Amino acid sequence: MGHHRISASGSSRWLKCFGSVELIEHLKASKMIPQRTYNAASQLGTAVHFVVEQVLLKKRKLKSFLGDMILEDGMKDEVLISKHELACARICIKYVKEEYKRTKKKANGKKVKMFPERKYDLTKIYNAPMGGTADITIIEFGGTLHIIDYKNGRMSVDVNDNSQLRIYALGAFYRFHKKYKFKKIKVTVVQPNDNHVDGAIRSQTVSVKALLKWEQKTLVPALKKVVSKKGKLVPGKDQCFWCEAKPHCEAYLKNKPKMLSKVMANIIPTTTINTLPEMHQLSREQLQHIVDDGDRVIKFYQDAKAHALGLMAEDRGALDGWTVTPKWGNRKLVSMAVITPLLQKKGIGPEEVTIAKEERIMTVTELEAYVNALKGWNKDEVAKFMKQATTRTQNGYVMYRCDTAADEFAEFIEK
Ligand code: SF4
């Protein structure tokens, strides 16, 4: 069973943008976008999924993966399994094992089964090439059908009404329900790398009736539009965010300014008098947007500031009201060959500036304090000596706001 044209993992997109499946296929066929895209994060995720699968299938022990280089289907580069990846996989494996044990205990002798990496093909059910692979499926006779999905990313995945997991659940439902007579459907996301308020493991349980209602009200009508080949392109923040067609999609490009202004309004909410709101004035939805997107905006501004600093340091265009100044590293002592004669001139032997117990020369601060406080040198003598006895290397530039002309010409005024 190969990849399905209408994948469960892409459902958050095609359930909202019905024409996206067709457009992506067209762009791939005309080589305008690659057949497959690889990035470091997704490859790392594939590698951790492989570790989880192998351990649950009892093919290998978890610890044996430490330091392994993994190259699996869906990857282009080898990925190193470090302690962190092992810890993430362990969280998922532990939860699955405990859940399986709990279900068995609760089932009291009734049939319970667990399947890692189970493929579900729903093509015949919906007359549409749809399906996908659920990371873990646990089925309990007369009880719960449980789908568990591991997510390695940092962007929080919402488990509630999650279409990808519901499609897996429907796949398992049509495959096993006749024999197992499920009463409830549980879906779980295990996501150790995000900092979700509800923790790394989040579940939602619904009745079979609720799942089938969602199927009839949401899934089936959307699928009909997708396979009709007349499905519209419907741009929106959620569906366009990860869409491969984005660079070539006219609907997206046309709507981009509108969507961006909506995103910006969500990230930077303002009050009716155009001021920034107090924290207690933020709604839960606003807070959600700020937390979801804030880091990207902060990074954007940091990158812009670094870019401006680079241009100004290279003297390639100043920005009004800003100036740059060299950033100096900490002072370091020059060699003792230079310092010793300077001290001897003042009647100080090198042994006096040596900390015998620790077999070292005084630090810059200790030396400065010593000649000042214990030897009674005056301010100018200390300054002159320290200038000769220490050195500092330039460590790039810093930019700062100069609000007045005096600031800008301060270095000349000082001279
Ligand atoms: S970019 Fe947006 S509008 Fe265009 S195909 Fe993708 S999801 Fe649809």
Please render the helix and strand layout as text.
Elements lengths: L5 E2 L3 H4 L5 H10 L10 H17 L12 E2 L8 E2 L2 H25 L4 E10 L1 H4 L3 E11 L3 E7 L12 H18 L3 E7 L10 E7 H20 L9 H5 L8 H18 L16 H30 L8 E7 L3 E2 L2 H10 L8 E2 L4 E2 L2 H11 L4 H11 E2 L2 E8 L3 H4 L1 H5 L1
Parallel strand pairs: 1-5, 6-7
Antiparallel strand pairs: 2-3, 4-5, 5-6, 7-8, 9-14, 10-13, 11-12
How does this model look, in words?
The N and C termini lie far apart (78 Å). The strands form 5 sheets. Strands 1, 4, 5, 6, 7 and 8 form a 6-stranded mixed beta sheet that branches. This protein has 15 helices and 14 strands. By secondary structure, the protein is an alpha+beta fold. It is elongated, with a radius of gyration of 32 Å. The chain has 2 domains: 6-241, Lambda Exonuclease, Chain A, CATH 3.90.320; 330-392, no CATH class. Helices cover 46% and strands 17% of the residues. Bound molecules: iron/sulfur cluster (SF4). Residues 13, 17, 20, 23, 233, 235, 239-240, 243, 245-246, 249, 251-252 line the site of iron/sulfur cluster.
